[in-house]
């Protein structure tokens, strides 16, 4: 996993603490995944928490988890990179 700005523990799943097998971009869809990658807005994840677990255990295809992921991505952006207005211009909307 390329360096993210959310956690320093790149080998541990951000959600459950299991060994990380992939990365989850906190902002995704409609071309935002690439921007999130450039901004470091991603976290290590195990496959179960990312997209292979039961619907209530994973981020993708779970509407509440997806919304919380995007809110966290924006909060990290605003705390470490730029303002809310800059976030809106870069990502096209605000999740907060």
SSE diagram, text form:
Blueprint (H helix, E strand, L loop, with lengths): L21 E4 L6 H8 L2 E4 L1 H6 L10 H18 L3 H8 L5
Antiparallel strand pairs: 1-2
Characterise this structure.
- This protein has a two-stranded antiparallel ribbon with strand order 1-2.
- The N and C termini lie far apart (27 Å).
- It has helices at residues 32-39, 47-52, 63-80, 84-91; strands spanning 22-25, 42-45.
- The relative contact order is 0.18.
- With 96 residues, the chain is mainly alpha-helical.
Structure described in brief:
With 96 residues, this protein is mainly α. 42% of the residues lie in helices and 8% in strands.
Radius of gyration: 13 Å
Number of domains: 1
Give the helix tally.
4
General shape? globular
Mean pLDDT rating: 94
List the main descriptive attributes of the protein structure presented here.
mainly alpha; two-stranded antiparallel ribbon
């Amino acid at each position: 996993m390329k360096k993210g700005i959310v956690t320093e523990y790149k080998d541990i799943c951000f959600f459950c603490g299991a060994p990380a097998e992939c990365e989850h971009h906190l902002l995704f869809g409609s071309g935002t995944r690439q921007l999130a990658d450039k901004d470091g807005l991603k976290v290590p994840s195990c496959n179960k928490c990312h997209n292979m677990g039961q619907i209530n255990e994973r981020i993708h295809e779970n509407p509440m988890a997806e919304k919380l992921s995007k809110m966290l991505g924006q909060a990290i952006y605003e705390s470490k990179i730029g303002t809310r207005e800059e976030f809106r211009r870069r990502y096209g909307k605000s999740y907060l």
